[in-house]
Amino acid sequence: MLLLLPQALVDGIMIGGVFITIAIGFSLAFGVMHIIDLAVGEWIMLGAFLGLYLNQWTNIEPFIFLPVVFVVFGLIGYYVQPVIFRVVSGKKGNPLLMGLVFTFGLALIFKGAGLTIFGFYSHSIPSVFSKGSFSIELGNFFLTIPVIRFMGLSYAIIITIMLQYLLKKTDFGLAARALAQNREASGLMGINPKKTSSYVYAIYVGISAMTGVLIGCIFTLSAQMGFKYTVFSFFVVVLAGMGYMSGVPWAAFLLGLVQSIFLIYFNPGYTLLALFVILYGVLLISPKGLFGRGW
Amino acid sequence: MMRHRNILWFIGIFVGLLVVPLIYSDPFFIRIITEAFMWIGLAITWDVIGGYAGRVNFGHGVFFGIGAYVTAILMTKGGWLFTLTLPMAGLGAGLVALVVGFPTLRLMGAYFAIAMWSLALAFQQLALLLNITGGPDGMRMPAFLNPAFFFYIMLCTVAASFALLWYLMERAPFGLKVGSIREDESGAMALGLNPTKIKIQAFVLSAVPAGMIGGIYAYWISYINPASVLGDIITDQAIVMAVFGGLGTLIGPAIGALIVFAFKTLFWAYLSSYQVLYLIILGAVIAATVVFLPNGIWGTYLTYRKSKPLGSVIYKSVEGDNEHA
């Protein structure tokens, strides 16, 4: 039993890496727009299918056209955001509630469209990295790291560093952070909240879609997968503390560890249940996330 | 005076529905009407937490499913009578609501939405894995083929829930408390209310009838599986019905339920090969409602009716209260 533990830990970190990117974008969008995007899993699904079709059409390595997916979905996000902005800043009814309901409607549309166009089958995107793996063997101790998962982790680290740079070192990042802190005051300082929110949402949608392609390479993709990844994103974001981005990597690694440990030691079907129990426990004890720094 | 008229309307419709099976007892017709009651029940109970308390519940189907499974397990494994399992179905759903509501309803609405969304998925998985629920094969129950019985029991349950919720939400102080928390939670707290407690009460109030409706559904259809009673589609439809009809009223979700259910029945009868299109239509309806009619069709109608004689005076719809104007 214990022999498999290092393997479980390494697997967990590799899987967790993938969730960092989704949750960072999600956390960013929440911080700036103050709404939970229930369509996050569906963006991942749509991105994954765009990757699949581009791959089938051109036969090019999926890692090469990740930027194309980013640009396509960034544009979609850029044009969807004003509608959400209008709903959330509306005067009628309860804007926050309406924002939730609106993104829920988006999620339903995307899911229905996905099932209609792509069907119910599972696919996977072939990549040159899918076959190989590094292995380490020292007597009783052994480890296997599939190259594709290693690439996934590298991708996650690169995206995270790029986002950190964007947020901490550029004027745009300063504007986005100011907007997240106080909408009115940042407007007085000459920040255009509509434009900045649109860019942030575009970046978030683009990153989610790119990560979808990666998930398609590492695991499988199907039109029904959105719901599951929405829950994973929620889990990571709540554990990290809503809107607190520095906590995201640790929460994502924890999610990966839970998944890999359940896969190796228990019935993987109980993973979602375990995630809910952890989520419930965190909300009960420390609702501001593991670090107490969230909203 | 007006209050009497509302009650008379309610009693009139209720009595009118009571005699329907005596006049026209075609089993298919009765079945459709029974299912329409079921959706009205789910939509109005969702609206208690979603519309009145302003907390979006993305896992309302969980209570329906718990009610169905509690009934099925007690009746097949325990040999209980249906009359005894019905309260147990409500109790089971209420207990789950209490336990889940306690940590999540103290926080801001987004946490509650996330927790219920995850809970729905967790319960689906649980029902698929446990032995007692029969896993993916579901559970089969002794069939009781009496459409009129289910018609009456569904009608009575939904009408009783409607009457109780109407009294609590529109007439009793409880409705005002819930409304004040929706509008301004810290303001309500400053007036000495305990928002968490009231929200949990409202949540349990919305869960118990949903569980009972689930219990009736299980015995009526006599076969349940995780996809049929815990699937996302139940919650999705309840939300669309309530939002489309009009949040924060009871009539609105009931009307929304009737329209969406009628559409669903026609759609599945004539276009069943395009089933997944239904999801797109549901999503488009709810997104369009949020953007163009945030008060739903009933809320828009009320605003329109009020704005004619009273200029632009808009106040929260206590249904039918200012008809003297």
What profile does the largest beta sheet of chain B have?
2 strands, antiparallel
Distance between the termini of chain B: 13 Å
Q: Helix tally of chain B?
A: 15
Could you tell me the CATH topology label of chain B: ABC transporter involved in vitamin B12 uptake, BtuC
Shape of chain A: globular
Counting DSSP H or I runs of 4 or more residues, the number of helices of chain A is 11
Q: How would you classify the helix and strand content of chain A by structural class?
A: mainly alpha
Q: Main beta sheet of chain A, described?
A: 2 strands, antiparallel
CATH architecture of chain B: Orthogonal Bundle
Mean pLDDT of chain A: 83
Which regions of chain B are unreliable across 5 or more consecutive residues at pLDDT < 50? 310-325
CATH class of chain B: Mainly Alpha
Q: Could you say how many structural domains of chain B there are in total?
A: 1
Distance between the termini of chain A: 40 Å
Order of strands across the main sheet of chain A: 1-2
Strand content of chain A: under 5%
Percent helix range of chain B: over 70%
The average pLDDT score of chain B comes to 85
